[in-house]
Design goal:
- It is a single chain.
- 27% of the residues lie in helices and 24% in strands.
- It has 466 residues and is α/β, with parallel strands linked by helices.
- It folds into 2 domains: 189 residues, Uracil-DNA Glycosylase, subunit E; 228 residues, 4-Layer Sandwich (CNF1/YfiH-like putative cysteine hydrolases), CATH 3.60.140.
């Protein structure tokens, strides 16, 4: 018979109590804390939920988790841990719950009484949920992603304590990682650990230790401020939005990314091709000197860890680059003028010149922007692309005009134009990903200047290395 090797972790401000079945065998541990198995994704999920980064709590070099950071995080957030059994018999030599025989169940009522601010008890596995329901007198066991009230359990504020059941963080559980993250995120929102106004991000997988994303309009963190045409998530100071609103949203995004505000850098874009290197010298500048250095830049690049660089768009094409070998990142704003002037290719050339990057080591992500079908242009734009040497058979087509259907109008494929530039610069086509989202067609979720007007917010597409 095995007795529980850990003490209950019960912070005084505990609002969420995770209860598993029982820890795995010691030989599977990488730390002396809950969810110690390195191939279990619990701490990767919490890193993604709270910091936008699945490896925030992961020490890849030593194949373990960052215990001190985890304990500090849980104490601050009010996240408690224990298990539904204090003693078990392990019927087989593995970590599966179905081979655990419960000998002594945990007195969960006593745990709840030690957490006066508790909002929810959370289980994931079926064994833990069954054990808990039986002890607490819950007859209808909740399904995954559902919750039920715990009979006779009320916190000090008179709120009913709930039993949530979430997808298992075990990789054996058949659900995509991002869907598990969203399920956990919703639970933390409903229990008050995350505000309902947290930034909602479209995330990209560009490699280990890299956080890459685009903001959605949802997640406005200045909702209590007076309503404006920008009443959605916007952090761009150059589009007419109010400073208080921008400050609220920047603070929320920085909390999610786990960085300070001065480590969130964006330029004042002018549809040019200027590329600015964000290095140690830049970080030593005053805020006014930084603004001057960022004036008229449409692409940024950096080798600094923990620094988020990004660009703002509202139909233009955002492009992110990551050198996997040298761990250099770039963010590019490519409107039609920047695309015409080959800003993507010039950014690759700048990474090569400044850092020694090899294009074959670079991966690229093209974010939300106006699609081929929606980007109707005049003949002068078509002729400018043709004169600049673009393959017009690959990037253009005529469609009936949206305003005068009897007329044919040219359309330009900006995502494809930038992708072709990257391939011509030496990137492998297999290393270029497209999110496939049209801002014009999805203006309820992403800002679109053609739909909403220029006096509205901007999508922020950012990247940082840990």
């Amino acid at each position: 018979m095995e007795y529980h090797p850990l003490k209950p972790f019960l912070p005084a401000n505990g609002r969420v109590l995770f209860l598993g079945s029982f820890p795995p065998q010691r030989k599977r541990w990488c730390m002396d804390f809950y969810y110690p198995n390195f191939i279990n994704d619990h701490w990767r999920i919490e890193g993604a939920v709270f910091y936008g980064h699945r490896h925030f709590f992961v020490d890849e070099e030593h194949k373990c988790f960052k215990l001190a950071d985890i304990v500090d995080f849980c104490q601050q957030q009010g996240i408690a841990f224990y298990d539904t059994s204090t003693a078990v018999r392990r019927l087989q030599d593995n970590a599966s719950d179905k081979f655990l025989e419960v000998v002594e169940p945990t007195d969960v009522r006593a745990l709840i009484e030690r957490l006066p601010k508790l909002r929810a008890v959370v289980t994931t596995g079926e064994k833990a949920t069954e054990t808990l329901c039986r002890q607490l007198g819950i007859t209808a066991m909740p399904k995954v992603n559902q919750f039920v009230p715990i009979p006779a359990a009320v916190n000090q504020d008179g709120q009913q304590v709930l039993l949530y059941r979430l997808p298992s963080s075990s990789r054996a559980y058949p659900l995509a990682f991002d869907k598990k993250v969203e399920a956990y995120r919703q639970m933390f929102v409903q229990t008050g650990l995350l505000g309902s106004d947290y930034p909602q991000l479209l995330r990209y997988d560009m490699g280990d230790g890299v956080v890459a994303f685009s903001t959605r309009r949802q997640g406005d963190c200045g909702a209590e401020l007076p309503a404006t045409p920008y009443a959605a998530f916007n952090i761009n100071r150059y589009c007419g939005d109010g400073e208080a609103h921008i400050r609220y949203n920047r603070e929320a995004l920085c909390r999610l990314l786990g960085i300070d505000d001065d480590h969130l850098v964006m330029p004042h874009q002018t549809h040019g091709t200027r590329v600015v290197c964000i290095d140690e010298h830049f970080m030593e500048k005053s805020m006014q000197e930084r603004q001057e250095a960022l004036e008229g830049a449409d692409a940024l690049m950096t080798h600094l860890n923990g620094l988020c660089i990004g660009v703002s768009t509202a139909d233009c094409i955002p492009v992110l680059l990551f050198d996997k070998k040298l761990r250099v990142v770039s963010a590019i704003h490519a409107g039609w003028r920047g695309t015409l002037a080959r800003i993507a290719a010039k950014t690759v050339a700048a990474m090569t010149a400044v850092y020694g990057s090899r294009p074959s080591d670079i991966v690229a992500q093209i974010g939300p922007g106006i699609s081929f079908e929606s980007f109707e242009v005049g003949s002068e734009v078509y002729e400018a692309f043709a004169a600049a040497g673009f393959d017009m058979t690959a990037i253009s087509r005529q469609y009936p005009s949206t305003r005068q259907p009897q007329q044919q109008k040219w359309h330009i494929d900006l995502p494809a134009s930038n992708s072709l530039q990257l391939v011509e610069s030496g990137l492998s086509a297999n290393h270029i990903s497209h999110c496939g989202i049209c801002t014009y067609q999805h203006s309820a979720t992403y800002f679109s200047a053609r739909r909403l007007g220029t006096q509205s917010g901007r999508v922020f597409t950012g990247i940082l290395c840990r």
